Amino acid sequence: MKLGISSYSLYQAMRSGILSILDAIDWVADLGAEHIEIVPLDFNFNDNPELVGAIKERAAKVGIDLSNYAIGANFITESAEAYKAEIERVKREVDHAHALGVKLMRHDVASRQDTSIIRFQEDLPRIADACRQIADYAAEYGITTSLENHGYYVQASDRVQAVVHAANRPNYKTTLDVGNFICVDENPVMAVKNNISYASMVHIKDFYIRPEHINPGEGWFRSAGGQYLRGAIAGQGDLDLYELLRIVKHSGYDGYLSIEYEGMEDCRLGTRIAYDNVRRIWNEV
User: Fold this and answer.
1) Can you spell out the DSSP letters for 87-127?
2) What is the pLDDT of residues 240-283, one digit of tens each?
3) pTM of the model
4) How far apart are CA 278 and CA 273, in angstroms?
5) How far is residue 86 from each of residues 77, 102, 131, 194, 244, measured CA to CA in Å?
């Protein structure tokens, strides 16, 4: 197991100009982490192709892995032409992952206002076909692609499994976020048990949870069923992180663990405490 940080955790500082992505790599290495996951939210490689080499060089210099490359995508489009264009766009992002030297890449798959199971079943064949095409393209580079359990539409463990099975490729798996299942009101412990065997990457996240009849005010969002949620420092929220990490550890998973912090505290403070907590808990479970 290698514990590290998603650059998404430091987005608050990067968006405000306090850190660049290269600074973030230095910061993660100084923390003692073993890898950084690259999430291009405040930059893109199409506009800054030279950044690929700079990121790769900086990570090598400070001695940490580039673990995963994570991007957005949506194969629910208004036309067949747009569908094909989105697949081709994601393939170009696979090229960026290859240039970075990573062997793992997460891309989103679908988003809709109507998140019903009926709509999902209708959409599943074209979602799976897009994922299959991209996985086949990524296989030429030895890259495993994946979908993450987020975005409400494809977030529950059974829907994630449905896409993975329908895509039916050995290099297509799931980036398993241990916390995100709560956003669709699924028990995270049961969901992680269901999907850990499909994981190519594991994200560690925590949430505060309040019932739907108690509005905590600013900074909270609602689950699919109406619960109030707010990002927490891992190990300080309401999720049973001890049991979640125990399941991951004893499943035999031996890949990357990536801290994803999205709380209201300063992102550097929150990420550092989360990292320390997860390292300690992992050693205890």
Assistant:
1) HHHHHHHHHHHHHHT-SEEEE-----S---HHHHHHHHHHH
2) 999 999 999 999 999 999 999 999 999 999 999 999 999 999 99
3) 0.96
4) 9
5) 9, 22, 11, 30, 34
